Amino acid sequence: MGEVRILTGNYAVAEAVKQSNVDVIAAYPITPQTQIVEALAAMRESGVLKSRFIWVEGERSAMAVCIGAASTGSRVYTATSSQGLALMHELLYWAAASRLPIVMTNVNRALAPPWNIWVEHTDSMLERDVGWIQVYASSNQEVYDLIFQCFKLAESKNVQLPVMLCMDGFLISHTATPVELIDQKTVEEFLPEYPYSNLNHTFIDVNNPLTYGNVVSPITHGKSYYRYRYLIHKAMLNAAPEFKTIQKKFEDLTGRNHGELLATYKIYDSEIVLISMGTLFNQSINAVDALRREGYKIGSIKVRFLRPFPNKTLQKLCKGKKAVLVLDRSLSPGVGGILAWEVKSSLFELNENLILIPAVAGLGGLEVTTNDIINFVRTVCKELENKKRRNRLYWIGF
Fold it and tell me: Which parts of the sequence belong to the Pyruvate flavodoxin/ferredoxin oxidoreductase pyrimidine binding domain (predicted)?
């Protein structure tokens, strides 16, 4: 067992970034992410962190610096949240299309207006189509462990895509729990220096000058734009089996396994499935235990990766179930929860009469209790039993 410290999610991230031997960090502070860059700056000032630390005037510049540094073959890290992530939007596409293995923590927070600094997943889910791998954590230990795995995945020769590690603002970022650290020798065995031999992306080499970012027409240059998009899609699909290998190696070294693209709880004999992301999964587990004592055959699934989305595994787990209930901490106005539509799209391929019931919960940091979820499940089950199901979106706690 390694050293155990009481760390908030933000400090757990900073500790893992320090141990990852990052070459360049560029960041701008924004609540609730600020503590990450403050901690890294303090480490740099004291000399325990050797990375080049670049303060910038805003998040768009932070991502521009990351793109430039990663293009020289550096291991690069940044962190952001909410409006800061939105400000990066244009450059997120450039990072993905350039196949740069940047790792960024996004501390999930609601988007203004009105101003709100508390947790919501809408900020990162709005960036689901830019070509970044997206993974969501539900505990401080998982956040710490995922930093190493994210670098490993991003730098994999078969992937070479940026990774966005998302964690719930304040519920993880500012909540202190025991975190078991990994000794530096083990970290470097799992995550050695940046594997330059893997480089197959945009690379700035003064001895071999090239031009990047030129205009390409739909039919010239080997249909290059079309081909770029195809290759990004292919790399994203490659990330699924690659992460399975990475997780296995991590488990062999540390004994810890938080799941692959998704995680499950008491799912195999269940008739009803609760699906969620982030810390909502923790409340779902408690709700499942309480509801099982009342006789409900219910289980829970945590979607860890939004991109690549775990289609095949989710379909396999939900096949033959009576109903799937999706808890969303995000909203696409006029549609509903974003995760629910991802799940609906995936399960459509099952071609079964599976009932999917979406619910929005906890927007803008509104507390979601275990009892809230229990009451939601009881209400839905009663409606299904009486064949009086309401054909609409549920708003838990509203």
Answer: 15-238
